[in-house]
Amino acid sequence: xxxxxxxxxxxxxxxxxxxxxxxxxxxxxxxxxxxxxDMKLAGEVSDYAIRIDRKEREIxxxxxxxxxxxxxxxxxxRTISSALKMVTDMERIGNxxxxxxxxxxxxxxxxxxxKLDIQEMAVAVIRMVTDSIDAFVKNDKExxxxxxxxxxxxxxxxxxxxxxxxxxxxxLQSDKGTETATNGEFILDLLMTAKYFERIGDHASNIAEWVxxxxxxxxxxxxxxx
Amino acid sequence: MIKVRDMCLWYGSSQALHxxxxxxxxxxxxxxxxxxxxxxxxxxxxxxRMNDLxxxxxxxxxxxxxxxxxxxxxxxxxxLRKEIGMVFQKPNPFPMSIYxxxxxxxxxxxxxxxxxxxxxxxxxxxxxxxxxxVRDRLKKNALGLSGGQQQRLCIARALAVEPDVLLMxxxxxxxxxxxxxxxxxxxxxxxxxxxxxxxxHNMQQAVRISDKTAFFLMGEMIEFGDTEKIFSMPEDKRxxxxxTGRFG
Lengths: 226, 248
Known about the structure:
The complex is a heterodimer. By secondary structure, chain A is mainly α.
């Protein structure tokens, strides 16, 4: 019964996994380009971000078709409406990764600079994105809750990077050397990349909140997930 | 409010309804849904004792209407059916003029004054949103109307005796989408004055027009609650499976 609809829902899941994988790759590419100062790789991120945009449109169209053809209710309605919300956050993840790559292409962050916790932060953020999509596909509310909780780890990385960069900024003011301007640009750019990673964490957390909504039929606040 | 307490119904030795308990709110639309043979129409017909007409029917439990059990000897069945009117699946106008269709009920209740009947006919037809379409042909045979118009005429006929409650048994299943929309909009406007209980196989119709929904399965009422809740987050897996089309 409703086997056609079940097939369509299965392919919606498949498309979301594909879009999630594109997001993971894009974040990983931006992070690698940033850590290794690889301008060429940074330049390739835009292609991925555009593919993510396209996938968002495809999944939106798929959801609209399902709403129109199947007039879903209950769990089906929650799944499709959550998917529609999730792709918006996934598209933002693609854009934030592109933002990071663009900063790399400006060349103020060089391979010789210490990138502080950025590598670890990127790994943590990718984990959040992977788990949030997994939670949707497996209908796993505990995994979704763990993603929301893990955002604290990403925030802690950001706070630490910010703190270290503030210290570098202070020492820059007392140092009247010729490298001041270059280092100033490095500090601000690295802070911005950290902020973009932190935003990606927030988007993954939003995805996990929609997963919880699709399972529970109500929103669960971050506090209650703690 | 109609309060149903532990109601069971048998057709001979076969039990069709099992221990139904529900409180149907006033001035609201309550939808009864469920697969064919689940007992929803049997339940609907019990509310104005239409099942009395079927031989071998036995009912236990209570249906309280205005705090009186409708099965008690104090109840006049004709009066009960005046208070609780019914609209059927297939439009069933009498083979007489539009005017006489509406005036039929009031006449049987003793109203003879022409002016009074004129007033009732106009008020009822307006109430059923069909006055503008038939005002110039009140003397024409009602069977000449379209299916959708006939169904609104039947609603007007039910309204003519000034009921409190309207029972509707799949009132749009024989109608095209435009006529269906008209009946649905009519039902929504009527709930300001009347309590409406509607049996429907059209899930989207239940979502569009009803305030409360009751899901019946194999003679049991499985779940009863706010329509929005039932169709977004049902409590019972059997409700979920039915409304999402996974069985039934």
